[in-house]
Write a structure and sequence with these properties.
The complex is a heterodimer. Helices cover 59% and strands 0% of the residues of chain A. By secondary structure, chain A is mainly α. Chain B is an alpha/beta fold. Among the domains of chain B are: 169 residues, NADH-ubiquinone oxidoreductase 51kDa subunit (Rossmann fold, 3-Layer(aba) Sandwich), CATH 3.40.50; 69 residues, no CATH class. Chain B has 13 helices and 17 strands. The N and C termini of chain B lie far apart (50 Å). The chains are: A mainly alpha, B alpha/beta. At the A-B interface, helix 1 of A face strand 15, strand 16, helix 9 and helix 12 of B.
């Protein structure tokens, strides 16, 4: 008596409720406070930049997959995350077509050429940003809003050695990219992801505390350095990108600490005022090696 | 007292409320039983009966001269109707003795003596009773218990740990036995302690079974050498390596046995079966089972004759509901999905779980996003996502280097995976690849 209706699969027969798209859409939700903060500081301009990023990312993913006759994955939320993250790293005065191009590069060169979600060695949003920094250096460092120029706190520090008030840095009343400004909004969203268990805390803790300790050692103002520039958004949302960060616990510490060290090196001695972008991309490249050398000791294993 | 536990692991929904308050009751004597003559890990058995023979309850029907085996006994009195090949719940095709149950009243005739207490028995006599009674690990592994009790000269056993964790969701049979038959478990534990010359017995029970913890504490109050350990409710707490880690803080070496760290682990149900064999001369001809799930009419706990068909048992739990979609023997984490209910329940069958249609997903896997939830869940500290890639590419050296053989196949990795990748399935494949290479080399 075979019962044709009975489903037969291998164990386990129950699964947790988490899915890739639940995780990605949760990241979208987590980024909303930062978007709201950007709208508060930069008005409608912020909305159009975020939309240009998201639309550029989603459309290019759709077209790429359609052309290559692959499964369309735009609904899993990962392209939306990439578009939002990229937009949040851009200056408020940037032309929308630039945002769009950056998003296309992020998705096509940062993600899809490697085989789509799960296969990209680098954080796609940062690949997009790196392209824009190289291709449009002037547009990428124009911090004027409504014709009024406002240099970023890090640029001020680099050129004039002037520090900005910490409280203004924390809430975001400063010049800078859309999502760099309010550490408070970024931390709110991160707390939500932590609560859901969708984000790793070792990487941001390692990265931010390394920046704090090293800038203190080298005689800088450490609180200024952790709240200024892209460190918060980079450490909380980009370095923690699951696909391009290590899978071992010790590996995540190394990744975070390494990225933090590179940030400090670039900020203090490099040509750019900010080093978060390159620090994460460089550590992304080291992930396979980090994973290999931080393989956990299996229970009962004698090394 | 703080509950003990191991590192990592998962917290699935336990769903034990469906059946945990249903007292054990005897299932109806089936009209026929189908008894596979291989219900253990080890050497195959020789048949002791032939078609047409009359057999009595408890009569040995298959045995072997080999050390690693467990004999099989008739679970009903009656006539051997047929000897044929059947599929067992593990999916193996095995020879089985089909016995037609007689309508007369049964009389146990196992040839085993009854011993009121352990005073007149020495270690080797206890082991012999356990062997003759055909007792195997009843948590599901079906490893012959007397083989576990055979301690080599150079090893010393300090602890006998009983597994009362019952960490598989849904299952409540060990819980019921601990609540209803605590004295039998303690008797069986003392027999095991005496047989392996251990100093102490510890019964590990998860905290979601307070009733069982209290029941076992009461029953063990008079024994200084027995302790009850409350364990955190976490899967796979009942894995023997996890139990030893939680209770004693010792790690079983890779490729080693609990014996290597001075421990023997048995299931609570197994201990109760040992007590029945010693005191009543009763071989392993029946066991308890939980029949549960949202696809079954009235979830329950039953004591059934080995070889009873799954369909007979399901019927006594009210039958399948309209929406029944998946029938699993064992629990949802490590149990096996069945195509047919026309197969016998065996010595290791601790549960029949029926999932309803809305609980059965098709789990269409998407690419791994390196979230490392599997790495963080693995109680053996393996890197499942990395091992999957090695298994897919038959990279045997890397599989070995990354300790794939240490995988206990608990399924925690597959459970947590947001991409719904059947990780543990690939890990089994990886283990098979390494084993195949080892056989080739020998």
């Amino acid at each position: 008596m075979n019962n044709p209706e009975l489903v037969v699969t291998t164990s386990p027969h129950v699964r947790a409720e988490d899915t890739v798209s639940k995780i990605m859409w949760s990241v979208v939700i987590a980024l909303l406070p930062a978007v709201f903060a950007a709208v508060y500081f930069f008005k409608a301009r912020a909305i159009s930049i975020v939309l240009a990023g998201v639309v550029g990312a989603v459309i290019s993913e759709y077209v790429f997959q359609k052309v290559r006759d692959k499964k369309i994955t735009i609904y899993d939320g990962s392209a939306v995350v990439t578009g939002m993250l990229l937009a949040l790293t851009l200056p408020p005065s940037i032309p929308l077509w630039t945002v769009f191009i950056g998003a296309v590069v992020a998705i096509v060169l940062g993600k899809q050429v490697f085989g789509g979600i799960g296969h990209n060695p680098f954080n796609p949003a940062l690949v997009g940003r790196a392209f824009l920094v190289a291709a449009y250096p002037v547009l990428m460092t124009d911090w004027s809003v409504d014709g009024v120029s406002g240099p970023t706190p890090l640029a001020l520090m680099k050129s004039e050695g002037a520090a900005t008030d910490t409280w203004r840095l924390f809430v975001g009343q400063i010049g800078g990219s859309l999502g760099e400004t309010s550490a408070l909004a970024l931390l709110l969203g991160f707390a939500f992801l932590l609560y859901k268990g969708y984000v790793n805390w070792r990487i941001p803790l390692g990265m931010i505390s390394t920046v704090f300790v090293l800038t203190y050692i080298f005689g800088e103002n450490p609180t200024f350095h952790i709240f200024a520039g892209g460190l918060m958004i980079g450490a909380l949302y980009m370095a923690t990108d699951m696909v391009s960060s290590p899978t071992t616990k010790n590996g995540r510490w190394i990744f975070g600490i390494g990225a933090g060290a590179i940030v400090v090196i670039i900020r203090l001695w490099g040509g750019y005022p900010e080093g978060v972008l390159f620090s994460i991309l460089l550590m992304n490249a080291a992930v396979p090696l980090i994973n290999r050398y931080t393989k956990p000791r299996s229970l009962g294993e004698v090394k | 007292m703080k509950a003990l536990t191991f590192k990592q692991g998962i917290h699935p929904n336990y769903n034990k409320d469906l059946s945990k308050d249903k007292p054990l009751k005897n299932a109806l004597r089936p009209e026929e039983v189908i008894i596979p003559i291989q219900q253990h890990i080890g050497a195959p058995l020789n048949l002791l009966v032939k078609k047409g023979d009359q057999v009595e309850l408890g009569q040995k029907i298959a045995d072997s001269e080999s050390f690693v085996c467990a004999p099989i006994h008739a679970s009903v009195s009656g006539k051997v109707k047929d000897i044929r090949k059947v599929t067992d719940p593990g999916g193996n095709i095995v020879r089985a003795v089909v016995i037609e149950s007689s309508s007369e009243e049964e009389k146990m005739n196992s040839g085993l003596e009854k011993h009121e207490n352990l005073d007149n028995l020495d270690a080797s006599e206890i082991k012999n009773i356990v062997r003759e009674a055909g007792i195997v690990g009843m948590g599901g592994a079906m490893f012959p218990t007397h083989v576990k009790m055979a301690v080599p000269e150079d090893k010393n056993v300090e602890y006998v740990i009983l597994n009362g964790a019952e960490c598989e969701p849904y299952l409540t049979v060990d819980h019921r036995i601990m609540v209803e038959r605590p004295k039998s478990i303690i008797f069986g534990l003392n027999a095991l302690i005496k047989a392996v010359d251990a100093q102490k017995g510890i019964i590990g029970i998860e905290e979601n079974k307070m009733e069982a913890i209290e029941s076992m504490q009461d029953a063990s109050a008079d024994y200084d050498n027995i302790e009850i350990a409350a364990l955190e409710t976490k899967y796979p707490q009942g894995g023997e390596k996890m139990l030893i880690e939680a209770i004693l803080g010792r790690e079983v070496p890779v490729g080693g046995l609990p014996l290597d760290v001075g421990v023997v682990v048995n299931n609570t149900s197994t201990a109760a079966a040992v007590a029945d064999a010693v005191r009543e001369g009763k071989p392993l001809i029946e066991r308890s089972i939980t029949i549960t799930g949202r696809g079954i009419e009235s979830p329950t706990n039953l004591i059934y004759r080995i070889g009873t068909k799954l369909s007979d048992l399901v019927e006594q739990a009210g039958g399948l509901k309209e929406n029944a979609a998946k029938v699993i023997t064992g629990g949802p984490m490590m149990g096996q999905a069945q195509k047919s209910l026309d197969i016998p329940a065996v010595k290791g069958t601790s549960g029949i779980l029926v999932l309803s249609a809305d609980e059965v997903d098709d789990f269409d896997p998407s690419p791994c996003i390196n979230c490392a939830k599997c790495v963080d869940a693995c109680p053996m500290f393996l890197m499942p996502t990395t091992l999957v890639n090695y298994a897919k590419n038959e990279m045997v050296e890397e599989l070995e280097d990354y300790q794939v053989l240490n995988c206990i196949e608990c399924g925690s990795c597959s459970y947590v995976c947001p991409s719904k990748i059947p990780l543990v399935h690939y890990l089994r494949l990886g283990k098979a690849q390494v084993m195949a290479k080892k056989r080739e080399e020998n």
